[in-house]
Specification:
The protein contains four helices and nine strands, in the order βββαβαβαββββα. It is an alpha+beta fold. It has one domain: Glutaredoxin, CATH 3.40.30.10.
Length: 222
């Protein structure tokens, strides 16, 4: 079984959901205002070095949460993001792609490094203690929680939010990209964002902040 969230198109609520264990559904519309994405983390990279949101200098961060035992959603999204980075050409050097685990019990640095070697884009895997991962999830408003699945490795999967975040240098929110957007569209949006003066454009359209994360089967996030 595989789980992920198809993402939002408005600030008020995610518009569609997809789940391997059932059909898509639309949640009721919400009236809440978007909550900020803090973007802070204190984690360990897949080389075993401590890092935080300020460790990557003047590069933007492209951040996706997942886990190495993810059978469908994570490989698909990592492949798509790798293709988007290839389409950016030399501009991709201004980005650091990060893959943050939601399954620290199984995803140690070596496991993350071996898993990410399959994908283009130069992703760096980040892991840490359960407490560190929970803090990172809260910072990005990510939902993720283990779910018993007897057929899965170790007997569980981890349904999780499937947004990709574009963060400015130092970890400030710039945009997010729903799961439904293709590589070409993501590359175009990143190209446009990196071509703008920081702070010159208000957050809008599909890149509006999500209010809450959730998994694809309808569990709401924090």
């Amino acid at each position: 079984m595989e789980h992920g969230i198809a993402a939002a198109s408005t600030p008020s609520a995610p518009s569609t959901r997809s789940c391997c264990c059932g059909g898509g559904s639309k949640p009721p519309a919400g009236n809440g205002r978007p909550a900020p994405i803090a973007g802070a983390f204190e984690l360990i990279d897949h080389f075993g070095q401590p890092v935080n949101e300020r460790s990557y200098g003047d590069r933007h961060l492209l951040v996706f949460f997942g886990f190495t035992h993810c059978a469908v959603v994570c490989p698909r999204e990592l492949g798509k993001l790798g293709r988007a980075l290839e389409l950016l050409g030399p501009l991709a050097s201004r980005l650091q792609p990060l893959y943050i685990t939601v399954d620290p019990a199984r995803d140690d640095p070596g496991t993350m490094r071996r898993f990410l070697a399959q994908f283009a884009g130069g992703f760096v895997g980040l892991t840490g203690s359960a407490e560190q991962i929970e803090a990172a999830k809260k910072s990005y408003r990510i939902f993720a929680a283990p779910l018993d699945e007897p057929a899965a490795p170790s007997g569980y999967v981890v349904p999780h939010t499937a947004f990709t975040y574009l963060m400015r240098p130092g970890g400030r929110y710039e945009a997010h990209f729903p799961e439904v957007i293709g590589a070409e569209s993501i590359a175009g949006k990143i190209r446009a964002r990196l071509g703008q003066t920081a702070g010159a454009r208000a957050l809008q359209d599909v890149d509006a902040l999500p209010v809450n994360g959730g998994d694809a089967c309808g569990h709401l996030g924090m």
